[in-house]
């Protein structure tokens, strides 16, 4: 059992949170080069933290030792969104996954296709006809917001624009609680960002609970019928599903997709992606590999353990960094190059297609990262 490279320093003074969140990619790249290891340690959020930047390390963390590394019940994500599929552990998470997957397959998924197509056609029709350069990120973010609120809450921008704008603004304010200092301060004429986020959360929960009481059809109606652990579970999941995180992530991926395929040198790739759905899937996987929309995820070790042979003490944190994991040269040849063909014949790609074709069972745990 080896000692992790790097140092966690001393409490407070050795904390590297500011450096990390300012530029996570450079933070990890410099330490990988310095330590000659894709797993290293530093102090983050004033806690000894193992940074996992390898495929094998992430597989151990999320799959092989998922019962050892648990989601942190005290982090800001849990506080802002409550108990849901993202914040639960173990058997409860597996049961939730099985229940929720029924809402994204078969008839439930097919019934949403007309709405998805109509929103995409209306939102994107002006892009192809415009002669002037456009900033696509805000267009894609608006598209994501319309899809999320229409599919999950039955609030459609064209039918109830004022309600749509109100909920969109509340979701944005709520999201700011994740990126604000967790200090709940409210005084005359001023409130902290975290306090404002909590107020937005309360208003969103009122809207969600009203929808759950009144809506009989669509996603809300289906969600009510699931065998969830308790009465509050459905509202907590809806709060997550309409989060501003989702439109932002979708906009990030679509913008990366656009940039990867644009320009005079990519005509052949664009044409092949138009003509061949399988190749388009490979392009999308490569976009997600190179430019993941989220930094990663954090876990807490509930016992002394190891990651790739390195000792991880009980109660310390472990954080996988998606950007670095996806560029692990041990797994991805020429990891910084855009090569959609690398996914041709891969086991992950084959399993994803088998699952998508069956539309019956969720993908194997950990298969999608």
Q: Please provide the count of β strands.
A: 9
| Strand portion | 5-15%
Give average pLDDT, whole number: 86
- Fraction in helix: 40-55%
Which overall shape is indicated by the principal axes computed on the Cα atoms? globular
**How many discrete domains?**
2
Give the termini distance in whole angstroms.
Answer: 26 Å
Could you give a short account of the major beta sheet? Answer: 5 strands, mixed
Derived structural class: alpha+beta
Strand order of the main beta sheet, please?
1-2-9-6-3
| H-E order | HHEEHEHHHHHHEEHHHHHHEEEEHH
Radius of gyration: 22 Å
Work out the helix count: 17
> pLDDT below 50 for ≥5 consecutive residues: which ranges?
358-369
Quickly describe the structure:
With 369 residues, the chain is α+β, with helices and mostly antiparallel strands. Helix content is 53%, strand content 9%.
